[in-house]
Amino acid sequence: MCKETDFNTISGGVCAAQGFRAAGLHVGVKTHNTSKKDLGLIVSDVPCTAAAMFTKNVVKAAPIHVTKAHLAQGKVRAIIANSGNANACAPQGEENAEKMCAAAAKAIGCTPEEVLVASTGVIGQTLKVDVIENGVPELYGLLEHSAAGSDGAAHAIMTTDTVKKEFAGEVIIGGKEVHIGGIAKGSGMIHPNMGTMLCFITTDCAISQEMLQEALQEVVHTTFNRISVDGDTSTNDTCCILANGMASNKEITEKNDNYVDFVMKLHEICYLLARSMAKDGEGAKHLITCTVRGAASEEQAETISKSVISSTLTKAAIFGCDANWGRVLCAMGYSGEKFDPEKVDVAFASDAGEILVCQQGRGLSFDEDLAKKILTEDEVDIEITMAEGDESCTCWGCDITYDYIKINGDYRT
Amino acid sequence: MCKETDFNTISGGVCAAQGFRAAGLHVGVKTHNTSKKDLGLIVSDVPCTAAAMFTKNVVKAAPIHVTKAHLAQGKVRAIIANSGNANACAPQGEENAEKMCAAAAKAIGCTPEEVLVASTGVIGQTLKVDVIENGVPELYGLLEHSAAGSDGAAHAIMTTDTVKKEFAGEVIIGGKEVHIGGIAKGSGMIHPNMGTMLCFITTDCAISQEMLQEALQEVVHTTFNRISVDGDTSTNDTCCILANGMASNKEITEKNDNYVDFVMKLHEICYLLARSMAKDGEGAKHLITCTVRGAASEEQAETISKSVISSTLTKAAIFGCDANWGRVLCAMGYSGEKFDPEKVDVAFASDAGEILVCQQGRGLSFDEDLAKKILTEDEVDIEITMAEGDESCTCWGCDITYDYIKINGDYRT
User: Fold this and answer.
1) Which residues, numbered 188 to 227 in chain B, qualify as contacts with chain A under a Cβ-Cβ cut-off of 8 Å?
2) pLDDT tens track of chain A, all 413 residues?
3) Chosen from A405, A410, A411 to mutate, greatest number of chain B CBs within 10 A
4) Closest among B116, B142, B111, B168 to B21, alpha carbons compared
5) Among this protein's residues, is B160 annotated catalytic?
6) What is the DSSP string of A105-166?
7) Where are the domains of chain A?
């Protein structure tokens, strides 16, 4: 099991890279709790190359349409994002998203097209854009190139998240110190398909737009697209990265060694963010890591692993610390993939040990007390071995709990 | 909204048809509660034409393999079924399923191949087949051609079900009174794909095997395959029908008017059984009926409707009586179907009234008190209108509750 502590991270989040400032503020989009920040801003001192990925949900929130259009214009200076309202299926959606960009642009002194926008929260209600417009000047004044600045922005995009998701790292590229940092938010309606709820990454790496988009797609595919909280793919999923080139490395314009180094570090940051989203899934008590080995292809391994982490019954069993591996096999079986169930082994593992519970598709008699002890840990692994080939894949999910029902039984009102 | 009371049903369940006897008994498969029946038997006085449909899960329980093989042999006299153990991924699975058939055959005086077998319960544990074998003679002695007999069998296949699922009806075919009756069990791991958890139907109609299989497929497709409790397709789904011809109608051998009359009545019984399974989903407090109108095709309407009733977030909102229609639109959007979200209307309805909450893809301001009142009813409709075409489809599901988590957090131990 990979732990957060296995990685070399640095502080600073989206402000770890040179030339990025960030801040968060409560402006009044969230009406119930005035202590909770609801507007965040990330600004680069110089224009950035940008790349992004968005939800594949047919129903897309207004800020996604606006951000796409702005990205098509070229360089980017900033990202403005609010929580408390998704600005999806809402009256004047695009108009209000444009107004957010315009307000940020005015403060920064750039064009509205140089600003990207994202929203998260309740679907279908009109965005109170005036409180955002009124709040931007103060928010702009709070911008800091510091860990505190990133912390503010990370908190400003949280909805039901209980912990902020923020990681950064550094890597030497062409003799230059390059920084990559990101913030993200979960924690319900999480079953990303080409992006995640909201994730903003900054880097001072010099890299072409084409290579940046390529790197982001490659990494998102094996990180955010491999987590699930509740199987619900949101209308607002957005993952974007800004690269301002201030590390002064030779610009990456092809898939050379520098590109590989960049992708590896980007992968690490996105992996940590994705994992923390799964771990902080709404109401979750357990992070579930499901690894499928011996698959015919990586795609097969991924489909089966996703089916297991998305199974409501498997999630409920893990919540109950019940080694009910039959539900794991059942979820594998309805994944849509063909395989020989008579050649499947299933084990549960955690810091408390590892236990094989199913061999060759049949139940083993095992130490129930040890199994319970293993599953009582916060982070639990489901290890599946098949005999179809040599490919493997790991996906991340969480258990389903009373709190998930509580949070989502009365989210809107 | 269609209600149970809209239908003309009769009593008797699987004993409504002439020549069928049934019974249920506690023999000891369920060890925790000796008052709960765990073995059921349905016997026809004469050999029956039989048809069946099974789970599409790659991981299939042993009794499914055995039942398939027996069906291929021709006529059928009986069905034996236990609850408390699914006999799936369990040691000696097929051997034990065959032993169940042999025990029943011995009591009845037929061949083991004339007996079908089904199991439901925990996956992966060895079936205590000896207690079943020892119990069969007593069970056989309890067989009755009566409502009490069907009641016994209906209870014997229940696991976490809180109410028995049993319906019967009669229809005149070629001047003869034909009876159709069925029993079924839910209530978790329910997301049938070509069959349902367990459903046994008997009829005294004279009908060829080919027409019987055709009728069953047609009906299952629009009833059991349109419900979902938790998105988990079981390893044991089995729906079978026995037709003993004792109504003495002219045998149905082609798709004539008699066939249509038979299918209509069969549809009614299966509809009622399917609906009662959704309503009694594990821990459920609400039956959710989702109708999609104005779709380009019935398939599109079905895919979208199923996506909505399967959405964990929508289910949690209905549990909380929260008119969070944004989740309905979101679930439509990730269904995989293409449609114009700007032309979607959503309304909630129940015995307490009807309220339009989203028009042309945008939220309406609506009476929150009325919405809450509507959603507080046990049976709630989600009415979706699109502008893609003239096709429609209805699917049934239930809300997700604290009790679902409780039941499934500790099901096995």
Assistant:
1) 188-189, 191, 193
2) 566 677 789 999 999 999 999 999 999 999 877 889 999 999 999 999 999 988 878 888 999 999 999 999 999 999 999 999 999 988 999 999 999 999 999 999 999 999 999 999 888 889 999 999 999 999 999 999 999 999 999 999 998 888 899 999 999 999 999 999 999 887 776 766 544 468 889 999 999 999 999 999 999 988 888 888 777 777 778 888 999 999 999 999 999 999 999 999 999 999 998 888 888 888 889 999 999 999 999 999 999 999 999 998 899 999 999 999 999 999 999 898 999 999 999 999 999 999 999 999 998 999 999 999 999 999 999 999 999 999 999 999 999 988 888 888 876 65
3) A405
4) B142
5) no
6) HHHHTS-GGGEEEEEEEESSS---HHHHHHHHHHHHHT-BSSHHHHHHHHHHT-SS-SS-EE
7) 4-279, 287-409
CA dihedral (B288, B292, B297, B303) positive or negative: negative
Contacts of A88 (CB under 8 A, 6+ apart): A59, A60, A61, A62, A119, A123, A124, A235, A236, B326, B330
Alpha carbon distances (Å) from B413 to A234, A365, B126, B407:
35, 13, 15, 11
Task: Name the packing angle between helices B312-319 and A402-409 (round to 10°).
Answer: 70
What residue in B sits closest to A345 (Cα-Cα)?
Answer: B89
Question: Are B231 and B268 a contacting pair, CB within 8 Å?
Answer: no
- SS3 sequence of A286-346: CEEEEEEEEECCHHHHHHHHHHHHHCHHHHHHHHCCCCCHHHHHHHHHCCCCCCCHHHCEE
How many Å from the N-terminal Cα to the C-terminal Cα in chain B? 39
Please indicate if any CB of chain A lies within 8 Å of the CB of B95. no
ipTM of predicted assembly, 2 dp = 0.80
| The domain defined by A287-409 carries CATH number 3.10.20.340 | yes
Q: Is B214 exposed, middle or buried (0-12, 13-18, 19+ CB in 10 A)?
A: middle
CB atoms within 10 A of CB A342: 11
Look up residue B209 and give its DSSP letter: H
Q: Where are the alpha helices (DSSP H) in A223-281?
A: 257-279
Strand partners, B382: B290, B348
φ/ψ (deg, to 5) at A168: -150, 155
Whole-number Å distance between alpha carbons of A270 and B267? 51
Quick check: B283 and B404 in contact, CB under 8 A? yes
Interface check for B234 against chain A (CB to CB < 8 A): the answer is yes
User: Global pTM?
Assistant: 0.83
Pick the CATH number of A4-279 from 3.40.1000.70, 3.40.50.150, 1.10.760.10, 3.60.70.12: 3.60.70.12
B185: burial class by Cβ within 10 Å (0-12, 13-18, 19+)? Answer: buried
Q: Across-strand partners of A202?
A: A181, A242
A90 neighbors A235 (Cβ within 8 angstroms): no
Contacting B residues, span 250-279, partner chain A, CB-CB under 8 Å: none
For A350, the token pair is: 């955690």
Give CA torsion, residues A181, A183, A189, A195, to 10 deg.
Answer: -30
